[in-house]
Amino acid sequence: MDPNAIFNKILRVARLDATVFDDVRDDQNELVPALVIAGISALLAGLGAFLFFEFNDYPFNNAFLNTVILGSIFLAALYAIWVLVVYVVLVQIFKASADLQSLFRTMGYAALPLALSVLMFIPYLHPVFAIVPVALLLVMTIYAVQSTTTADSRQVVIANLVGLAVMAFVLGIVATTPDAGDAPMGAGLFAWVFDV
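Request: output the structure for the sequence above.
Response:
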């Protein structure tokens, strides 16, 4: 693994260059960097939530533990479930060919927009840095999945929407539980799903 090559790929994803997914799709050596990028992106999102609570003086029990540590782990696990849901929808429902490791490689790099959530603490701009990264994530995962499957664009979009819906549903449930004040990072963003 060449750190410079990985950094170059990260910069390409940051510039929304979807051709990076074609480069990492079949490279077995890209699995670990992709998982690390997804993990660091989730960690930065958790840090952003922690900073949001700290800068806005919201009462939150065990904020660092619940947002940075547990929230990051929770978000990373839900993102992995998203990848698995996409795979199942593509292979079982649409009968398209897809490789699970290729999906993890490409979607690991596609998780980079989550890192923008670290800026959620900025006053008056926190909704932007809470919602825009999720929107960018959805767009990047569509490109990531498209590069790994024989499914058509409509099927890829549907599979990704199902994966996002599962993640939003779980986060919405967590955010609306009686202990929602201690919900992991990101969960509060999806509480509106159950308030509608």
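The chain has one domain: 3-195.
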